[in-house]
């Protein structure tokens, strides 16, 4: 996936229009990073999510959704704070994590449900 800066990203972007196909219909569990360009903690967790996306690609998919550009999905899941990480399995949200966290803690929290 290519970002707006032209670099390759292990964390593709989803939108209101692609959310159902990319997240809800996925065979793998999907961790959705609800993010915003103006959010400093979102920028802090982005490299952590990139690393996990590469390392755990065989059992987990990670995507990001810009809440400013995609308000319908944000509203549908009641996301009020950024970053919010919402894990979907079988089209259903199964875990919510709000705020940036270190890689080890995030992996520990994910291991409980992935």
From TrEMBL:
<dbReference type="InterPro" id="IPR017937">
    <property type="entry name" value="Thioredoxin_CS"/>
</dbReference>
<feature type="site" description="Contributes to redox potential value">
    <location>
        <position position="40"/>
    </location>
</feature>
<protein>
    <recommendedName>
        <fullName>Thioredoxin</fullName>
    </recommendedName>
</protein>
<keyword id="KW-0249">Electron transport</keyword>
<keyword id="KW-0813">Transport</keyword>
<comment type="similarity">
    <text>Belongs to the thioredoxin family.</text>
</comment>
<feature type="disulfide bond" description="Redox-active">
    <location>
        <begin position="39"/>
        <end position="42"/>
    </location>
</feature>
<feature type="site" description="Contributes to redox potential value">
    <location>
        <position position="41"/>
    </location>
</feature>
<feature type="domain" description="Thioredoxin">
    <location>
        <begin position="1"/>
        <end position="114"/>
    </location>
</feature>
<dbReference type="InterPro" id="IPR013766">
    <property type="entry name" value="Thioredoxin_domain"/>
</dbReference>
<dbReference type="InterPro" id="IPR005746">
    <property type="entry name" value="Thioredoxin"/>
</dbReference>
<keyword id="KW-0676">Redox-active center</keyword>
<feature type="active site" description="Nucleophile">
    <location>
        <position position="39"/>
    </location>
</feature>
<feature type="site" description="Deprotonates C-terminal active site Cys">
    <location>
        <position position="33"/>
    </location>
</feature>
<dbReference type="Pfam" id="PF00085">
    <property type="entry name" value="Thioredoxin"/>
</dbReference>
<dbReference type="InterPro" id="IPR036249">
    <property type="entry name" value="Thioredoxin-like_sf"/>
</dbReference>
<keyword id="KW-1015">Disulfide bond</keyword>
<dbReference type="GO" id="GO:0005829">
    <property type="term" value="C:cytosol"/>
</dbReference>
<dbReference type="GO" id="GO:0045454">
    <property type="term" value="P:cell redox homeostasis"/>
</dbReference>
<dbReference type="GO" id="GO:0015035">
    <property type="term" value="F:protein-disulfide reductase activity"/>
</dbReference>
<feature type="active site" description="Nucleophile">
    <location>
        <position position="42"/>
    </location>
</feature>
């Amino acid at each position: 996936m290519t970002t707006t800066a032209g670099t390759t990203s292990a964390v593709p972007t989803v939108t209101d229009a692609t959310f159902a196909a990319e997240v809800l219909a996925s065979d793998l569990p999907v961790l959705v990073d609800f993010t915003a360009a103006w959010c400093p903690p979102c920028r802090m967790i982005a490299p952590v999510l990139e690393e996990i996306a590469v390392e755990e690609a065989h059992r987990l998919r990670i995507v990001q959704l810009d809440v400013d550009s995609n308000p319908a999905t944000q509203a549908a899941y009641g996301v009020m704070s950024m970053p919010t990480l919402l894990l979907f399995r079988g089209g259903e949200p199964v875990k919510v994590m709000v705020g940036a966290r270190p890689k080890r803690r995030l992996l520990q929290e994910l291991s409980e449900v992935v």
